[in-house]
User: What shape does this take?
Amino acid sequence: MLSASLRDCKAWQSEGLPLSTTSNEACKFYDATLSQYVGWRNDQTLGGIEGCLSKIHAADPNFVMGHVIGTGLELIGTGRSVLLDEKLASAVRKMVELSKSQPLTERERLHVSAVEMFSKGSFPKACLFWEEILMDHPTDMLALKFGHDTYFYMGHQAQMRDSVARVLPHWKPHMPHYSYLKGIYSFGLMETKRYDEAEKVAKEGLALNPGDGWAVHTVAHVHEMKAEVQKGLKFMEQRENYWKECDMLACHNYWHWALYFIEKGEYEDALTIYDNHIARRCLSSGAMLDTVDSCSMLYRLQMEGVMVGDRWKELLNITRPHSEDHVLQFNDLHFLMTSLGAKDESTTRRLVESLRELAKSPGENYQHQMAQDMGLPMCEALVEFDKGNYSRAVELLLPIRYSFDKIGGSDAQRDVFCQLLIHATMKSENKRHQKLARCLLMERDASRPNSPLTDRLIKKAMTVHNLD
Assistant: This one.
């Protein structure tokens, strides 16, 4: 039985967001799908997102916005590439063809154009279309959330914040998804280093909706970036029963929890979370967020000198099939960590060579356009570091270190590459690189005072290089 609170044709119309279908059931399942996407959870009483999408198409196979949200979510998940997956490419074509065969609102047409641009890798153009929608329809949560996620993939931190700030005055507390707006906005504030304000807004959202895993995630980031380890651990533990129900985000929140233990140097506790929650969820879901978290966790532990055993080989079963997807440079780099960790030279070579080929003729694909200057040097740095060519890894990373944000992700996620550069300078036999290690560590200490991880690295550098 569908909830009475889900919006039918008339409700969407009255909110100024009309949908071009006469099926109330299609409209309600569209709402249910949107609610689950914003809430990062599959509601099994509704059949989860997949079940709701199936019911949308059964209710009205030609409902264009049903195709927009279904195909858009598949693309936003970044687990499939239109270059390699004909079924996904066909879904995009069908969405576009349907849009041309029936009368639609201008808003719906812009949605179609945005998803089509995203499928081509033209992320900036996709965001322009979603922003065009929001100018006239500031309460269109699908446009807001698709745009927010795409800005995230481009590392556009200010845009993540401002895209929400522009529409906030138009939202009222009684509106559907209002509480989630707080969580989304708080993340943009956090990524632009407005930490105190981000925590305040996130907790306002949690006061309205304790089950908002994304707002929890913002607070976890704040404590991570400020090296407030004990506060972070306490916060995550106190709210675990709420956020673990967000099945699409729970793995990532457990990753944040484990980062606090790595920060403290309590590696066994971090590995316990990895084995019991992160790896288990990753192997079950195969979702890209869960996968890159697993890659990053093992790589961080490995840089800290922790033996991770056969975990790399287990993870390789998930990442190897995606080695030539090249949807996101961020994903590529994490898949590469796994093939290197598992000593799979063939997969490593295939990933790097196929990316190099795409970089030669990137077309309008944003990710492929930046491969030459960002993705490939970072991939090569990982390979050189793995070979023990630490000086070369430094030479590759140092010129682009202030551009790491271009690969997408958050400051916390990209910190693995900042740590990689520090470890490479510390291991390099080049005396200038060893002095650079001290500079990088002093810089890190200034930006994250009281970080146990930084303190450990400083002591190690002083011991190894006789620095004072």
